[in-house]
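Problem: given the chain below (750 residues), write out its structure.
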Amino acid sequence: MTLRGTKIVTFLAVLVMASTGLAFGSLTGAPNAATAHAEVAGRVVVIGVPGLMWSDIDREKTPALWGLTAGGSAAGLSVRTTRVNTCPTDGWLTLSAGQRSRLPNGNCALPAAPILPGQPSPTGPPPAGGAVAPGWPAIKSDNADTNYHAQIGLLGDAVQTAGGCTMAVGPGAVFGVGNGGGRVDRYVTTPDRVTAADWARCPLAAVDVDDLFRAYIDAGVDIEGEQEPLTERRRAAAAAAADRRVGQVMTGIPDGTTVLLAGLSDVSVDPHLRVAIAQTKGSGGQYRPGYMTSSATRQDGLVTLTDLTATTLKTLGLRQPKEAVGSVWRSQPSSVPTQERVEALEDEDVAAQAIRAVQTSFYWVLFATQLVLYGIAAIALRRLGGDRASRARILGGTRVIALLGGAATGASFLAGLLPWWRAENATAILICTVLGFAGLLTGVALAGPWRRSAFAPGLVITLVTALVLALDVMTGSNLQLNTLMGYTALVAGRFYGFGNQAFSLFAVASILTAAWLTEYPLRAGRKTLALGIVAAIGAFAVAVDGLPAWGSDFGGVLAMVPAFAMLGLMVTGRRVSPLKLALFCLAGAALVLFISYLNSRSANPTHLGRFWQDLANGDAWGVVVRKFNAMLNSLGYWPFTLPLAAAIGFLFFVLARPTRWRVSLLQRAYEHSVTMRPALLCALTVGVIGMLVNDSGVVILSVAFSLSTPLMLAAGVRSLEIDLWNEDSEPPAPSGSAAESTEQQSAERR
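Solution.
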């Protein structure tokens, strides 16, 4: 009993210490030494052009916008707030709070006209020459009660507390730079009415250029309430009108003013990436010609709407409050011509739209296609598999289909290596690309001497899948964005590291790889080596998934540590009790909190570090509740959830004892691979724990099944093939051949 406990503690120590050692290497950074500034030290004009896209910008038709792009830094702008599509007032309120915000009634119309001096106001009279945003108390209260707890008026309060004033040009701008009471110090209706003295008066000004969105409002809706399409000519005319207003702003502002232009909302129910440009008028400035990025996205040429608040505060020399969650826009100087930059940024949105059209249906097509093919194979075996030759051909074909299904998950990421979205029929090209990579991977799995094994072809697929995902997040997460099982900038749930679907795929691939690699030392009786393989792969996988510099995944560590610890016990013949599993879960929680603590002390903490800060401030419970509610929502309703829970429980029992349930296919796989049982049980465990601790919920478990199920089926089918061949083999010698028979069976399993 003491020896068994010592080995458990030793394994946990190896796993946690190895991951922690990597954590020190990636998490150390300068402590956050930001200090409060007493005075404003810069000048910023935020120009909001709701609905503006990079396809609207043209050298001849929009010269002012073209000039801004040519002389400044540019990026695609993700404008997602609290709803699928962002309305103009939502975008302005997000600027105000530095957090995703919304207009309570969800009315996607032009921002309401402000309350001017002399007009009645429920929050007190507007300042002389200024204005008050209508409905401000209700807006503040509603956003404070959302899952994001947005603090409306944060930007305006920060400027006024530092001794500065705010100016709003146009109705929407009042919602953007109004203080905690919804007030701006100076209000002007349109850019052409702003005087030189107005521009010089306040360090922060916001300008609402609503020509594009107004064109859609004027177009109206059809009898079904759908937005009437806007012709290219009318959209070009609206973009040209917006360009003239931007030109008026650029002419009037003094040199040294930093201009932050944002297409801060959508214009219909279909979300798009919008325009983000930063430039300092006159010579100098931090925004050189090129692209932009931010710590929030870590993607070249991509920033978020919440970054706009952080960038404004930084440019003004003001400290960013913790309630503002964005990151500062950073310039990436480039010698690429302006035309090529505009086309590249337009291409970002094309890719986002293309993947959005097929991402949801990918899983259904993948699962349904496999089920149909497996059903055909089962019928064929029953009706056409009377002789051994026919049966062998059907089993061989089924095995290839199963391996192809398992390879399709990793191939969906490899498809991002090719610009499939630029094709005329992008969906068809994407399908062919995924099938091509899946076929290539399946060919490799069946090409070498390992093809005769029941488990080794699956090992090739899981190893390649895990390595592809690991190398991707370690080098910038380029394959994660706009892929079938990754994430998109339109949803804006994540821009770097592992998303929930990719985590599930990586975790299952890593566990299956570790389990099947131990097959060889276990057959040689080297349990210590097998345990070392599991610990090494587990430490690497947890580090790749959990370190902020790479996967930056909180829930993944919680799921992977107990799953790998459980695998370590099972491959060495140790029993896994509920108490041990609970201890492993606590070890995972301790490790992820340690990572969060270290990250919270870095100069630019990620969501991991911010969770530790929330924990220290007593605000972490709200984050936990939001994630848990999202997980519950993913389960749908109880008539679906209860059968799912029953199915998971039944599956655990089937995987543990297939003979009791007469699952012959699984039983054959267990007979031909000593690690098949721990591999599948631990893969299911990481899927279940991952489902419970991540906001994607049941999606994580579905992705886990999408890789493990076809590979398990392939191993089972191969086992049946081997058994079929054994029926034709010579009978063993009657005596003195027990060892030879054992060696022969081992060779067949390989």
